[in-house]
Design goal:
Layout (H helix, E strand, L loop, with lengths): L1 H4 L6 H20 L3 H37 L19
């Protein structure tokens, strides 16, 4: 059970790898003189940033989903209209 609680945290490693690769792609794109290769490098770096942002949002969603699951451990309540204790006897 402990392993399942920390699973979203393990997404930090691939996210860090993506951002590191994007850094080196941008470094090479800035040093090159070919305009087409510069544009391609910037596009690839932007796509890597988008992938890292998606992973971050998945981590946030996973962590908030786990919190919600902890609070939902109770039995669901019946609607008040159908509850026999709420009958008013008029």
């Amino acid at each position: 059970m402990c392993m399942l609680n920390s699973m979203p945290i393990f997404a930090i490693v691939p996210m860090t790898i993506l951002l590191t690769v994007s850094f080196f792609v941008l470094l090479v794109a800035r040093k090159t003189d070919v305009q087409g290769l510069k544009v391609f490098g910037f596009v690839v770096a932007a796509l890597l940033w988008v992938c890292a942002a998606i992973m971050l949002s998945m981590v946030i969603q996973g962590l908030s989903g786990r919190r919600g699951m902890m609070h939902q451990g109770q039995m669901p309540q019946a609607p008040m209209q159908n509850s026999p204790m709420m009958h008013q006897g008029k």
